[in-house]
Amino acid sequence: MEESSPTQWAWAADPGMGMWCASLTRGITPHDVLARYGADSRTARLLTRQQAAQLSGTEGSVLRAGTLDAWAFCFEEYGLMGAMPGPLSALSQGTETFSVLRGGDGMNSFAYWRDGQCIERFEPGFAGTRPPAPHPWWDMVQQQLDAAGTEYPGLVPVLKAVALHTDAVLDTDTLNGPLLTLLLDDNSRTPDPPPQPHPTPVQPPGRFLGTVVPDPLSPPAVIYAIRPADQHTQGFKPEE
Q1: Dihedrals φ, ψ of 113, to 5°?
Q2: What is the pLDDT of residue 210?
Q3: Which residues contact 170 (CB under 8 A, 6 or more apart)?
Q4: Are residues 233 and 156 in the same domain?
Q5: 80 in a domain, yes or no?
Q6: Assigned domain for 60 exists
Q7: Whole-angstrom distance, CA of residue 106 vs CA of residue 155
Q8: pTM (2 d.p.)
Q9: Residue 229 pLDDT exceeds 50
Q10: Neighbours of 149 (CB within 10 A)
Q11: Region labeled Disordered — which residues (predicted)?
Q12: Cα 75 to the center of its chain, rounded Å
């Protein structure tokens, strides 16, 4: 990736920028992106960011899709479909997908999906959300956060970490320009896949009756269960 400039990430560094979500998928087209979100890409139009703002409604999300070399992206302002398991599972089928979300409640997220499976997901900078090792994307994102040198660096370092891998920069000029745009209703998005079942520990049959030891008065092959009431006596008495 070429050396980044401040203007490239101006949109993400803008303190007035509200909630947003961006996904980046290798080797598919913008029409593919919209379809994998659950939209009919034939209804999409080329609109600028300013024009797309007029489509915003109370329900649904405005999806804006384009390409950055070998990668296709989808950007949402005031939307989070690109952070949900359904679209991410569909986007990453046969390829890989990154998702970066700035949440409206102040909670941000990063996710990396491959072949329909979530490989890593965490809240950047919050150690309590670090995935089990190995976690290469946590390490790469944290390295960029540390390099920022500020207590609250925002999500620009996260976008830089993704760009170092993809060599694709989602810059301000790209977002402001014309992109394939449509409004997708919440009920029409790709549904989330069913949760993976967790293995249930196998329990032995019956219930625990106490420790079993040989009775010294019985043949060696015969064993008895000790009753709790008999444990204080000298020796062991077999149950009747």
Answers
A1: -115, 145
A2: 54
A3: 22, 24, 68, 73, 75, 159, 163
A4: no
A5: yes
A6: yes
A7: 12
A8: 0.79
A9: no
A10: 7
A11: 184-213
A12: 16
d(CA 140, CA 162): 9
Whether residue 120 contacts residue 111, with contact meaning beta carbons closer than 8 Å, is answered with yes
Q: Identify whether residues 126 and 213 lie together within a single domain.
A: no
Rama region for 222: left / alpha / beta (φ>0; ψ in -120 to 50; rest): beta
Indicate the number of domains in the chain: 2
Which range marks the domain in which residue 123 is found? 6-188
Asked whether residue 194 is assigned to any structural domain, the reply reads no
pLDDT at residue 4, as a whole number:
57
Sheet of strand 45-47: strand arrangement: 45-47, 179-184, 61-68, 71-77, 20-26, 96-102, 108-114, 117-122
- Whether residue 200 is contained in a domain is answered as no
Residue 50 has what pLDDT?
95
Question: What Cα–Cα distance (Å) separates residue 23 from each residue in 73, 205, 227?
Answer: 5, 49, 65
170 shares a domain with 101: yes
Could you tell me if 236 and 165 lie in one domain? no
Kindly state the greatest CA–CA separation across the chain.
94
Q: Is the pLDDT of residue 202 over 50?
A: no
